[in-house]
């Protein structure tokens, strides 16, 4: 299994992360964002290889089962701004979340979050600029009072996007938010 040889992110936390107040109970990833996995995720995201989402959703399901934490009312995805969604034709995080929800037999709720501003891609920014880039760009789409939510994205580099989404979900009433990604930098 791939996670047996990888560093477990729920057990080791860097000093910078220890000092931050997180709205996420945990973040887990199937693998590292390098080599073949980086190429596959790049193809999913930028080369219109949306057919890869189902297989990658299977990888997320492996991690989901391995964590043994099934107490979620819903699965949702990091939203994409509507302009970028029109350009790309799909939200890769949503495709991954739908694939996972199907395997886990849990509801996918795509209406929990929406992205209200179209800003520079996080990948183009230095680490210290990423938090301000996602500040106040997500809005709650519907009430989720008391719900435990599993948030899905393709890649986690600094975690700022996931944190911003979790902050929004907390303000909308979510009791607990956790995150799964295919790869972590």
Outline the structure in words.
The chain is α/β, with parallel strands linked by helices. Helices cover 39% and strands 18% of the residues. It is built from seven helices and six strands; from the N terminus they run αβααβααβαββαβ. A four-stranded parallel β-sheet has the order 1-6-5-2. A two-stranded antiparallel sheet has the order 3-4. Strand 5, helix 7 and strand 6 form a beta-alpha-beta unit. Helix 3 packs across helix 5.
Treating each run of at least 4 consecutive H or I residues as one helix, how many helices? 7
Give the helix/strand class. alpha/beta
Shape: globular
SSE string, helices as H and strands as E: HEHHEHHEHEEHE
By DSSP, the count of extended strands is 6
- Which stretches are low in confidence, meaning pLDDT under 50 for 5 or more residues running? 1-10
Q: Please tell me how large the radius of gyration is.
A: 15 Å
Head-to-tail CA distance between termini: 19 Å
The percentage helix is 25-40%
In short:
With 185 residues, this protein is α/β, with parallel strands linked by helices. It has seven helices and six strands.
